[in-house]
Write a structure and sequence with these properties.
The chain has two domains: 2-54, Orthogonal Bundle (Arc Repressor Mutant, subunit A); 66-145, Alpha-Beta Plaits (2-Layer Sandwich). Helices cover 41% and strands 19% of the residues. Strands 2-3-1-4 form a four-stranded antiparallel β-sheet. The chain is α+β, with helices and mostly antiparallel strands and 163 residues long.
């Protein structure tokens, strides 16, 4: 897995990087518009974007505002797993839940961190109980998000402005 991310990072030449920057701002921008703005052919843009999608560097999706579409209970869940050799298995089971919008292995007291998007607090409670029943889930801690100020994508300029 590390090797793949290193390969993807190395493949990000300036043109690929510029394509990603433009598509982050407007994922619906046409290949023709991108080609004109970047001074390359439409075929070059099409080939580059296709490769970025194939190697999973780029995913073009529609991002919705959770609150506006009916998700009113948004929470962070911290999960301790015992025995520790069940972390991967527990993570795979949790990842299959539709309510999970983010899941990662962490350092510290808890082994996993998940973000959940639920319709309301009864729905959130139901999902939390189902997670607590998974074999290996030892302890959980839930933090509700009352108001989300920013949901964003990585600022690509941060990887280019290294000193």
């Amino acid at each position: 897995m590390v090797a793949n991310s290193q390969i993807s990072s190395l493949a990000l030449d300036e043109l690929n990087f510029q394509l990603l920057l433009h598509l982050q701002k407007d994922g619906r921008k046409s290949f023709t518009e991108l080609a004109e703005e970047l001074g390359v052919s439409v075929g070059t843009v099409r080939n580059r974007v296709t490769r970025l999608i194939e190697d999973k560097t780029l995913q073009i999706t529609g991002r919705v505002d959770p609150e506006k579409v009916g998700f009113h209970a948004y929470a962070q869940l911290l999960i301790s797993v015992k025995p520790v050799n069940l972390v991967e298995e527990v993570a795979q089971k949790i990842a299959r839940l539709e309510e999970i919008s983010f899941l990662a292995m962490t350092t510290g007291i808890y082994d996993l961190e998940a973000n959940l998007l639920c319709r309301d607090t009864p729905h959130l409670s139901e999902v939390l109980l189902s997670i607590q029943k998974i074999e290996g889930v030892f302890e959980t801690k839930t933090n509700m998000y009352f108001k989300v100020f920013k949901i964003g994508q990585p600022a690509l300029n941060l990887v280019r402005n290294q000193s």
